[in-house]
Amino acid sequence: MAEEKAREFVGRTVEEAINVALQELGMERNDVHIEVLEAPQKGFLGLGGREARIRVEPLGEWEVKAHEKPRGDKAEPAGQQKAEAGPEPGRNVAAPAQMVEKIVGFFGINAEVKVTEKESEVLVDITGDDVAILIGKGGATLDALQYLVNVVCRGKGLTDKRIIIDVSGYRRKKRKRLEAEAVEAAEKASSEKRDVEMRPMGAGERRTVHMALKARDDVTTESKGEGEERRVVIYPKEQSPT
């Protein structure tokens, strides 16, 4: 799969520009990092106005890599990471966890927030008795929380790493189920010698499928479709798409 790069989009409003970008990229809002380059301006008597201009950067495979088994990483309470050397500029790994703590505290939820730093991500784990409310239907609330923390912390230069937020292992369990679903579909495609279409998925889920089947030598994968109907198609090796 080709690496996805940042692109610029325009619209009469920032929201319109975002909608244009998401539709053209076939992604969801929590799958991209959005930077507003120019706010829209109205012209005199409707003339000489300026459209909103944004830069949209797909978040890549960070969500998949974030749940790979850590190599010697150890989760530490927020604020204790790199306590001896002090945080590097733009790499304050405690900042995302501190922001999450404030949001959780605002809702009156008693939770423990831990942070783990990896090479290109900061993983924030939330655990506690009443944290299920932070997940939401289909993980929508969790995705919104993660998107908000990424926009604020990275936008203000508090960290230059991708921020992954998980609640009681929800993302890890979801990834495991999706990987099992992908393997089952791949087995069917290989044994029955036909292409198998998986259900429509967001960009993060599609990347999980691609990564789960990447090492197989009997099938290949490709994303097809537009918008909310975009999905992964699995082909037997001899029937790869042209």
Main beta sheet: strand number and arrangement?
4 strands, mixed
- Point out poorly predicted stretches: 44-48, 61-90
**How far is it from the N-terminal to the C-terminal residue, by CA?**
14 Å
Helix-strand pattern:
EHEEHEHEEHEHEHEE
CATH topology of the largest domain: GMP Synthetase, Chain A, domain 3
CATH class of the largest domain: Alpha Beta
> Treating each run of at least 4 consecutive H or I residues as one helix, how many helices?
6
Extended strand count: 10
Rg, nearest Å: 20 Å
Our estimate of the beta-strand percent is 15-25%
Strand order of the largest sheet: 4-5-6-7
The outline comes out as globular
Range of helix content: 25-40%
Structural class given helices, strands, pairing?
alpha+beta
Explain how this protein is built.
The protein is 33% helix and 24% strand. It has 242 residues and is an alpha+beta fold. It has 3 domains: 7-58; 63-168, K homology (KH) domain (GMP Synthetase, Chain A, domain 3); 173-239, R3H-like domain (Ribosomal Protein S8, Chain: A, domain 1, 2-Layer Sandwich). A 4-stranded mixed sheet has the order 4-5-6-7, with helices on both faces. Helix 4 (140-155) links the parallel strand 6 and strand 7 (162-167). Helix 5 (170-192) packs across helix 6. The longest helix is centred in the C-terminal third of the chain and has 23 residues, at 170-192. It is globular, with a radius of gyration of 20 Å. Mean pLDDT is 78; it is low at 44-48 and 61-90.
